[in-house]
Amino acid sequence: MIIIQPSIDPILISLGFLDIRWYSLSYIFTFIFGSILIKKLNKKSLNNLSDIQIDKFFVWAVLGVIIGGRVGYVLFYQLQLFFLDPLYIFQIWEGGMSFHGGLIGMISAIYIFAKQNNLSFFYLSDLVSIVAPIGLFLGRISNFINTELYGRVTDFPFAFIYPLIDNNPRHPSQLYEAFFEGVVLFIILYLIFIKNSKKYSAGIISAYFLILYSIFRFLIEFLREPDLHLGLFLNYFSMGQILCIPILFAGILILFRR
Fold first, then answer.
1. Mean pLDDT of the region 123-134
2. pLDDT tens-place string over residues 235-255
3. Rounded distance, CA 209 to CA 132, Å?
4. How far apart are CA 213 and CA 223, in angstroms?
5. Domain limits of the chain?
6. Which of 6, 19, 167, 243 has its CA 20 to 30 A from that of 121?
7. pLDDT tens-digit series, residues 62-103
């Protein structure tokens, strides 16, 4: 079944001086839903955090994800542009956010906030790990709307044609990632949390998040069109796959140590 990608304007509303984009809304809704869900999960488990603390933490989380995501994108994917124009790193309206950079920014935010408030780093990271797939799901749907990070040409029976790119059937890799990194990952982590909420062991959910995300992303990257300016390393692996390797090992290490 070959499907033509629906024509959806990446800009939901234009106010002249301000454009409200689907991609921006994905971040806004993630932080709103994430804050609500973390408060509910916190009460189901150890109840170590007050609602006020969670609200304060999300200020750090927003900064961590946005700064880390942007810096990571520039350093991992557009380093040559940064050398030509260092101010490019601040041109967020040009687009470009990296999950791995956002992950580093979020980990930094969790560490600083936990340290300042005498909280368990892994307890907070577990709560964040459960809600992170919400952001991954919405982000990949936004990528689909923006016609970016699309898949490779395929003869697979199920494929999409992206008219803005060409007339070749391609893997809808954004939708694959939205399903596995968003829906499937959320269900698995939530079930682990519910099953172990009464005999909670901090760090386990964070470990499974890192492991499963890395595996899903690594495998689906084989179906995604490589970045034109980067190509493939060793003619086989993308930058995204290479960045997943240390994340995978970090997850395995945490799992065994916890």
1. 95
2. 888 888 999 999 999 999 999
3. 9
4. 16
5. 21-257
6. 243
7. 999 999 988 888 888 887 877 877 777 877 766 678 888 889
pTM, to two decimals: 0.90
3-state secondary structure the chain: CEEECCCCCCEEEECCCCEEEHHHHHHHHHHHHHHHHHHHHHHHCCCCCCHHHHHHHHHHHHHHHHHHHHHHHHHHHCHHHHHHCHHHHHCHHHCCCCHHHHHHHHHHHHHHHHHHCCCCHHHHHHHHHHHHHHHHHHHHHHHHHCCCCCECECCCCCEEECCCCCCCEECCHHHHHHHHHHHHHHHHHHHHHHHHCCCCCCCHHHHHHHHHHHHHHHHHHHHECCCCCCCCECCCECHHHHHHHHHHHHHHHHHHHC
